[in-house]
Amino acid sequence: MILRSVEIALLMEHRSSVFRFSWCASSASRASLPQSILSLPLAAEYSIDHKGLYATGQSGGGMMTMAMDIKYPELFSASLPVAGQWDPALVKPLAHKILWILVSQDDDKAWPDESAMIDVLSKEGATAARFWDGTWNAEQFHEPLRRSTQNGARSTSWPSDR
Predict the structure, then answer these.
(1) What is the model's pLDDT at position 93?
(2) Where do the record's region annotations for Disordered lie (predicted)?
(3) CA dihedral sign, ordered 41, 82, 52, 89
(4) How far apart are CA 77 and CA 54, in angstroms?
(5) 92-102: pLDDT as tens digits
């Protein structure tokens, strides 16, 4: 897949700030993305832990999340791509990132790529756990979560008494 024209647009009500970034911009412009994000007016006014930034996106936003994690590996502490379609051959650099990948097995577009991505990441040393059933009650959900953490996966769940 070749991305021809994709932009990130961070729109904030605060002071009508708008920041745009184009993946098709010059390499000098692309190199400034991390600094541009960290210097937004929102970051200047509020105490933001620059080492605790997280990325997420659904569908095309999930692809954007993966692209930014690969291009800027130190920018985000963890990421949550949802139903993104990404080339599994490109994800090896993410094997040691904290990712929570969400996708439905019924998603004919995203499931094949995300499932293959998880296989690649596992082969590269990532700890992966696959589980979920949308019909589970809380106890049914927490049992496989407990098993995955016993096998080395890190997680937090609420309520925390389970």
Answers:
(1) 92
(2) 142-162
(3) negative
(4) 6
(5) 999 999 888 88
Q: Residue 110 is encoded by which pair of tokens? A: 């995203």
| CA–CA distance, 62 with 102 (Å, rounded to integer) | 10
Contact status, residue 20 vs residue 30, Cβ threshold 8 Å: no
Q: Where are the domains of the chain?
A: 1-48, 49-154
HSE on the CB side for 30, CA within 13 Å? Answer: 13
**Quick one: CA dihedral 148, 152, 158, 161, positive or negative?**
positive
Contact 69, 56 (CB under 8 A): no
Residue 23 DSSP symbol: T
Sign of the C-alpha dihedral computed for residues 83, 89, 93 and 95 taken in this order: positive
Q: What is the CA radius of gyration of the chain?
A: 17
Give the up-direction half-sphere exposure of residue 57: CA atoms within 13 A in the CB hemisphere: 18
Is this structure's pTM higher than 0.90? no
Fold of 49-154: Rossmann fold (3.40.50)
